Amino acid sequence: MSQAKTTPSVEIFLHLSLLLSWVVPIPFIDILVPIIIWQATKKQSPQIEPHARNAINWLISSTVYSVVLLVTLVGTILLPVLWGLRFVFPIIAAIQASKGKTWKYPLAIDFLGSKPEKQLQRAAIGFLSLVVIPVAALLGSIVWQNNRVSWLDSLSPTTGTVSQVNEKTDEYGDTLYRPVVEFEGPNGDLYDVSPLGWTGSPTYKKGESVGVLYTPTEPQRAIIDSWSEKWSMVTVALVLSAIVFGFSLIPSIFCLIVQRFSP
């Protein structure tokens, strides 16, 4: 009996499905669709297995690399390079598939292994292994938030006055603004405080009254009393941690469900 053979179009689509997130704004679509194609065609076309193995290994590996780069300041510089590879590699693999060849993605770690019956489980473990980093980041963000709440509760409120609005020009020629707010400390001394970042339009005018929160024992430790100054950094950290957590947990659950109901 002749062995069933996958059509090149299925192999090509499997590799190109890794690019779906570039055109379809659905979370995890570039992870879930290749797994669906693999599982839906593997019985009729066993030759798709090495293509799926290479593609899924690259998905897990590049996700691992992305998480590691995201949590390191220096690594963020390399993120555009990695995203470029995530775009280029599936195209190369699809071109090779159109020629009847199987292309192994460079830099991919073989998470799935060579045993077909264990590959979905190993894929789930591969994605699940990423949970360690975002869980640590999420717990750290929660601790940071609790410490932030305690610190904010210890501050004393007062009213300051915008003494000046600094301006600068960025590398694109746009003007950025940053106010300087002057307020009086508990001993009558004057202190200055400014927002953490610059903005593209003036948020305050010179002479305008602005709420200020300061440490009674260290008035130089002060912030402007606004949501962005109090919560923006903590919120960004929590959201990023939750997103990375989802990117590792949801694909793992999906792989385990598919394995459970696969014939």
Automatic annotation (TrEMBL):
- Name the source's superkingdom: Bacteria
Q: Membrane topology for this entry?
A: Multi-pass membrane protein
InterPro entries of this UniProt entry? DUF3592, MamF_MmsF
Q: Where in the cell is it found?
A: Membrane
User: Which UniProt keywords are present, listed alphabetically?
Assistant: Membrane, Transmembrane, Transmembrane helix
Q: Where is the chain membrane-spanning?
A: 12-38, 58-83, 123-144, 236-258
Q: What residues does the DUF3592 domain cover? A: 158-227
**What is the name listed in the Swiss-Prot or TrEMBL entry for this protein?**
DUF4870 domain-containing protein
Native organism is Adonisia turfae CCMR0081
